């Protein structure tokens, strides 16, 4: 069946902002889909609110709407664009839910839009857990026993039958909220009550807990002719009870016999057929009882998922691309396998290596969480590694994480576990945590019987034995030394995955020493190919990984070559924006005639797609691994400034002549406090007064000089890690103590002699500004964008909303900013990107920091203005001048914008109600969205809707303000009243409002002082009476009332605003929304200068 | 485990270093082939079709889930050795009653581990299947052994694996005679579900078979070159038209030969569990298990249609006679190991029996 000719225009919905559980894997799948569908000649209309994605680049779709993913907005888009079909299966849960909402609202029918890939019936069957179970039982598959309950009594009846432990899952919730496992009657009461509470319809599924069973996933594809294939099988190292997204997983499955695997395969095929996913990829999860082999189905995701991205990277089979082709009518046998170029896609990939995925979490940034892994996903990113064996693969994955680990222990950080007694260690590893794998190795190293370890952690004995092999090898190596190792011994150690750095630690020598001894013994890595077929056919795609075998498969060309170092695992502070930059570098440099070589280890990304760059090395971004690739590829230049902090950290250790663009010395000059201060002084650019300190005494001296409040932070970190605002000496003592503790462990952000603490005067009530610029080798500077932050300085730039163009800065300030940036760029000898952050107070401009590298805002600037900043910067780094690039037509000098673009941060608090939602200098957002419209108010309003914090229409707004905010609060409250909102306030705030003649409808008690009618704020919020909370922090004090208020609001899904500037922006949003009708515009229209001001109003 | 250094030497002089595993043997030789299935090593090792061959597993970890009598595809071991990247030290499975290394020792089968199996696979893919020898002997001795190894072309390997005496399996209503060219156990099991199966030696004359008055005849899988199998093509020629016939793998090739078709040797064969086979009559694709080095030449079989095609290289994967009740497939619908996608072919055989003999058995 060839492609369908009865449809021409396709609507694809992206997954919106990066949130926990839905990361950039959907940018990868969406980008692939957009590309192939356009290749097939379809017109693609894309809706996605996330400007940091590659898919929303105007080149990837015919019409790109960076608009909120809500029903009214989608209806507008559909009305304007009249697509023939909607493909909902490539944008994660967000797209699937939205498609279902559009269907239920009758919109698809009204405009004659066909849902392709999966229809509503299939989606319902898979998504409704109860229906899904019935369907599975109907086709003879086993599922965990369960019952439905609407009350505590009903729930108790269910467990009378099932017994404990059970897992409780509320109906109709997002992201596993209210889910939990109960092992005791007390826990049961608590978890059930939570669950009933979390479900909007007070319904929970009480299911027999099978925590401790083995967990598996199969990635299935189906076409219109009912051909079904399994693309990849995945085994979770962590047993059931730890969400697959939080589990260490391995492909292919390791501990199932063929008989068992085929049983599972049959079940997965039966499942996709019964659920009725017509075409495309699905993910089916299974659990297997270790002692009996009993298999049960856990769930099915009727769409491309996080695991499909992993499966695609793990096998080389591009699931999303093929799913898109299948959706428009092709069958699997009509599609050629890209990798072999000859055989068809209707086969099952077979691999000859082992893939390991390890998630990465951000618990250190989310105080209030216990760091225990459970049935709800908490990871913010992941790494994948490829090795010929599990041992090699798992050690590579450990060092890919960038947590300072050099492998599976055998590094300085392992000493952390030394303090634990055997019992304490076993207790620790019995619980799923980010440290479990390392604890398991430590236990094995102490000689604890693997069977005892198994009993506690339920990690399959096969995996434990593999880890024991690493442990035993280490014991053997410890007796030896670098110079004494035979070739066979070297090979054995490397084949078990030991890094040179681990060996250097073991032998108390240097990495260089280890490396030269190894090379002298003739042991260097070989590069093999990911080819979907275990070498049965020749591979046409150069997708490689290193291993320690006999022969290489790479044939480096003699074309001019550029190596691009990627950004590693996603984490808070370093996410998809940097992948965007790397991918653009690859595209633009390829176009300019270079061979591009990508190095990265993040399976969720577009950069690790085998057809993004000329060659792909799926490798850890450590010095050893990168150096090895340099040795074989001999690149002419290496791009280190687009992948965030990851490659930048390596810059100093690479040959300086290879580093493209800005010299590493300049990076140091901007990062080294002394050099930087001198530079600013010389240039006459004011900075907040400050100094550096390596101990408390020095810190006190600095504070004496600059006065409180001060901002205290470590050097060389991204995302404001461990940054605190300190108001007095007491806080200073505790802040310094914390940093000192981290330093001794060699952790990110720790304090040590080489890495002193930076202390600056904290500028209160200043407007923060971000500027992105590019400077070329001739000295010309291009100002890409000036972004005015909505929240004041003190809220990390990554967490605050910002607007482009600026709204309140006067022309002379803008000129001053431009001139500072130009001077700084020149002085730092920047060739490429420069991001400078400023704080503007009382008309005075202070520079906060300058980063001669890609910033988080590069993609936002590109989407807001149409300026391809990353592409321009990449070319400039390789020697083009800006003038050349203009001649070439790569970009035009930006003109005046006819619209306003607002970026809004997306925070993880709704997933973690126990974490305080207050914003501060430590970044905690996971993603971002963009609102784009004709006024600031409208764009801000869209941004809020896109971020999931829709501004209310009317109702009660609760105010609780710090004294210094009371005056600004009056203005906000007055305007809200005028818009028809009612006000509730705590005593002090209420008094201030009344004194200004603003009526307060509800008086709210302080926490713990409830009396009669007067309830406290959390209660008021829990009663569902509040539509928005405006609560500004008091600045000091322990967990103040404010924290409880914000927590209650987050739990209830009520919008929380913690700064006056944001509150004012919200007022603008509501005002403008009422004044103008909803309009949507695509980037292609907005970026076309002749079409400026194309909004209808 | 003490390490016993060993090597594999191919007849073209290519050397691979590794360490000996399994039974102790200074030299083992045979035709070296690779199998790309990721599970099912025990079924593969016990598959009689590998007679005369040394099996390279492309998946690096072999032995993870141990061994069990349930996974044996024959009682003996016909292959000449196994080549792996990494043999599991510890097995983990509720099904297992032993580990692979011990099993190999008990069955007196030698193997070699630690080999860069990907390099070997690419070499065989590019240069074609070839003979080789491995073991703890010197490289020179191994090369000499490789040179002395006859390989599988023109060798009647079936005679080495067929049953010496007839025997009966299954108790289904149909009466089927199965030619044992090296039949896998699961084929007998699946036939036995609907038939009482008389398993006969490969050289059984047609007259003896017809004397048993079977409802149908089954031609099994088996090792090597079909043209080298003494007597079988002739016997089958006499059976065609007399009784419904179903063949698998070598049985497919022998049916083709009996019909006057031609056979060719593939460059490195098909050995794996992921081969797409299209049924030309329905257009659907099955993922199949395959294990053969020879194939039927497309368009060479008089009176038969090509019903199945291997989509990887468009070789013939199934034929069906137009005028007589006989059909066969090159792949393995019985799986073991591998996907069950093609298992309905056994049902097709039952339908054929029904259509020839009327509804009831
Ligand atoms: N019955 C159960 N007992 C114990 N753990 C379970 C059970 N069902 C699911 N889990 C665990 O919870 C995780 C999430 O459940 P799942 O149904 O996959 O939901 P999600 O939609 O969040 O992926 C699974 O990965 C598994 O580890
Ligand atoms: N002196 C200061 N006064 C007020 N706020 C500041 C000051 N220095 C930094 N900040 C705030 O802290 C945030 C993080 O600081 P920054 O130097 O940009 O660190 P990072 O490298 O993590 O981006 C800034 O975005 C800004 O809001
Ligand atoms: Mg799941
Ligand atoms: Mg900053």
Report on this model:
The complex is a heterodimer of chains A (1097) and B (361). With 1097 residues, chain A is α/β, with parallel strands linked by helices. Chain A is built from 37 helices and 38 strands. In chain A, the strands form seven sheets. In chain A, strands 14-13-10-11-12-15-16 form a seven-stranded antiparallel β-sheet, with helices on both faces. A seven-stranded antiparallel β-sheet of chain A has the order 31-30-27-28-29-32-33, sandwiched between helices. A six-stranded mixed β-sheet of chain A has the order 17-18-21-20-19-22, sandwiched between helices. Chain B is an alpha/beta fold and 361 residues long. Chain B is built from ten helices and 19 strands. In chain B, helix 8 crosses helix 9. The longest helix of chain B has 14 residues, at 344-357. The N and C termini of chain B lie far apart (56 Å). At the A-B interface, helix 9 and helix 16 of A face helix 3 and strand 15 of B. Bound molecules: adenosine-5'-diphosphate (ADP) (2 copies) and magnesium ion (2 copies). Residues 688, 711, 718-720, 723, 760-763, 766, 768, 793-797, 837, 839, 848-849, 921 of chain A line the site of one adenosine-5'-diphosphate (ADP). One adenosine-5'-diphosphate binds next to strand 26, strand 30 and strand 31 of chain A.
Give a short synopsis of this structure.
The complex is a heterodimer of chains A (1097) and B (361). By secondary structure, chain A is an alpha/beta fold. Chain A has 37 helices and 38 strands.
Largest sheet of chain B: 10 strands, mixed
Using a beta-carbon cutoff below 8 angstroms, give the protein chain pair with the largest interface and the number of residues from each chain: A-B, 55 and 55 residues
User: What value does the average pLDDT of chain A take?
Assistant: 92
Strand and helix order of chain B: EEEHEEEEHEHEHHEEHEHEHEHEEEEEH
**What is the rounded distance between the termini of chain A?**
46 Å
Relative helix content of chain A: 25-40%
How would the global form of chain A be characterised?
globular
Low-confidence spans of chain A: 744-750
